[in-house]
Amino acid sequence: MRYRLPFAPAHEAVAYIESLAQTGEAAAIYFDDIEKFGIWPETYEWVFEKGWLTQFIEGVLASPVIRTETFSEHHARAKTHGIVYLPTTSYIEMNEWTLPAGVAARYDGLIAASKASGRFESEKAFLRGGIWKNFFSVYPESNWMHKRMLGLSARLNQLEATRRTPRMTELLHEAQANDAYWHGLFGGLYLPHLRRAVYNAAVELESLLDIVAPRPAMQHVDLDKDGIDEVFFHNASLQAVVRLDGSASVIELDAYALRHNFGDTLRRQAEHYHHKMLVNVTEQDSHGDGISSAHDRISFKHLVTQADLVYDAHGRALCRDILYTGDGEIVALDYALTSSNDDSLNFTAQTATGEVHKVVRLSAGQMIVSYDFGMGMRGSLATELNLAMPSCDGPAGRFVLDGKIPGGFGQPLEVEDLKQIALEDAVLGGRLLLSSSRPAQFSSQPLFTVSQSEAGFEKIMQAVTLLMRWPLQEKNGRIKLSLEISTASIR
Question: How far apart are CA 456 and CA 271, in angstroms?
Answer without folding.
Answer: 14
